[in-house]
Automatic annotation (TrEMBL):
InterPro entries: ArsR-like_HTH (IPR011991), HTH_ArsR_DNA-bd_dom (IPR001845), HTH_MetalResp_TranReg (IPR051081), WH-like_DNA-bd_sf (IPR036388), WH_DNA-bd_sf (IPR036390). PROSITE patterns: HTH_ARSR_2. This is HTH arsR-type domain-containing protein. The keyword Flavoprotein does not apply. SUPFAM superfamilies: Winged helix' DNA-binding domain. GO terms for molecular function: DNA binding; DNA-binding transcription factor activity. The keyword Nucleotide-binding does not apply. Keywords: DNA-binding, Transcription, Transcription regulation. It comes from the Bacteria. Residues 5-97 form the HTH arsR-type domain. It holds the Pfam family HTH_20.
Length: 97
């Protein structure tokens, strides 16, 4: 691994850990993990007792860190855990939630 690759990986790790440093975002991940399928954003926000704008902010943070995938169908957005990121950077983490 080159120095550049190491720096990129380190930057990604920092981005991931910042995204995980919030109880609401952990609750969102827990909700998605327990569902084992994609959920629409409104349903996740409701289950986590987050307002629409607050949930949207947290979804964006998780997406930018590569922790969730977002799929849009018509007017509805669906989210799910991006398992590859957890496998690469945090193996076993989801089991601890």
């Amino acid at each position: 691994m080159t120095i550049e690759q190491t720096l990129i990986n380190d930057e990604q790790r920092v981005h991931i850990f910042k995204a995980l440093a919030d109880p609401t975002r952990l609750q969102i991940l827990r909700t998605l993990r327990d569902s084992r399928t994609e959920l629409n954003c409104g349903e996740v926000g409701e289950r986590c007792e987050a307002s629409k704008s607050n949930a949207s902010y947290h979804f964006r943070t998780l997406r930018e860190a590569g922790l969730i995938l977002v799929r849009k169908e018509a007017q509805t957005k669906y989210i799910q855990i991006r398992q590859e990121t957890f496998d690469q950077y945090l193996p076993g983490f989801l089991d601890t939630l």
